[in-house]
Amino acid sequence: MTPEEIKAKSSELAAFYTAKANGKILQYDTKAVGWVDSGSTSGPDMQSDLTRWRVKPEPRRMWTTIDATTFNESQSAIWKKAGAYTVTEWQEVLP
Fold first, then answer.
1. For residue 29, what are the domain limits?
2. Which one of 9, 18, 31, 58 has the fewest beta carbons within 10 angstroms of its own beta carbon?
3. Total number of domains constituting the chain
């Protein structure tokens, strides 16, 4: 590895471990089974293929009316307060 490659990979690893320190879950792509949560003490290292690691995505929430959709909770509050719309809340289901 060149010094530039080491610097780039170290930066990516730092982002993974920062996310982990902030309570996020790291996942590893097993190819055969798909994305699997890593253990509490495991994670990528300098020898890891970082394309097979990710921070577990969190399900998004969204709100819809008969003619609009938003991911912005503040906008949904405006719709609800107006009372002219029926507002439905949805949460994404992730694999």
1. 3-55
2. 31
3. 2
Q: Which two tokens stand for residue 36?
A: 């699997």
Considering the domain architecture, whether residues 21 and 36 belong to the same structural domain is answered as yes
Same domain, 50 and 66: no
What is the C-alpha separation between 45 and 48, in angstroms, rounded? 5
What tokens appear for 61 in the block?
């929430």
Q: Are residues 38 and 67 in the same domain?
A: no
Beta strands in the chain (DSSP E): 26-29, 35-37, 53-55, 61-64, 69-70, 88-91
For residue range 22-53, what is the model confidence (pLDDT) as tens digits?
Answer: 999 999 999 898 899 987 778 899 999 999 99
